[in-house]
């Protein structure tokens, strides 16, 4: 998404100043890093006045939290769509989630998992942005445990946690080693984990 600078009040069909700030900050923070981007850069790119920013967000930390919350909303929208499209089989849901992750991390604009990124830049878990990131990861693990239960895993908590580890590992490999053969390797690892928890007796 390319965000161009503009000034003045939006037309009725345009995003609000708050939405423009979040959209601009999301792009800039993700591509260049949160600490590397100052408020003035966000204002210049969004075309929003500083007074408007501070009416909507009391601080940069609050803007970071709003960006993380929007990323979280989009993430679960994506996840729920995959679950609904594969509702007849929990295993198909898991496989489709990992296929979707491969597609995401193969994009040239991929800069890592945004939730891991914010937690690295702000390791204090009480930071409002990091709190959103940690909650996202906890919910991912819980929902993978629920899918593991639906698949009939012998130990659904263990399988869910292992799948979550595999998911985060894929994010890390994409930005360090690359994505060559990643789809095949990732889906093979998913299948082995699931089969290893299946009751073959």
UniProtKB/TrEMBL annotation:
Top-rank lineage group of the source organism: Bacteria
DNA-binding region boundaries: 38-57
All residue ranges annotated as the HTH tetR-type domain in the record: 15-75
The UniProt record lists the keyword Cell wall biogenesis/degradation: no
SUPFAM superfamilies in the cross-refs: Homeodomain-like, Tetracyclin repressor-like, C-terminal domain
Gene3D superfamilies named among the record's database cross-references: Tetracycline Repressor, domain 2
Signal sequence extent: none
Pfam families attached to this UniProt entry: TetR_N (PF00440)
Entry keyword set: DNA-binding, Transcription, Transcription regulation
One term of GO molecular function: DNA binding
PANTHER family assigned: HTH-TYPE TRANSCRIPTIONAL REGULATOR LMRA, TRANSCRIPTIONAL REGULATORY PROTEIN
Protein name per UniProt: TetR family transcriptional regulator
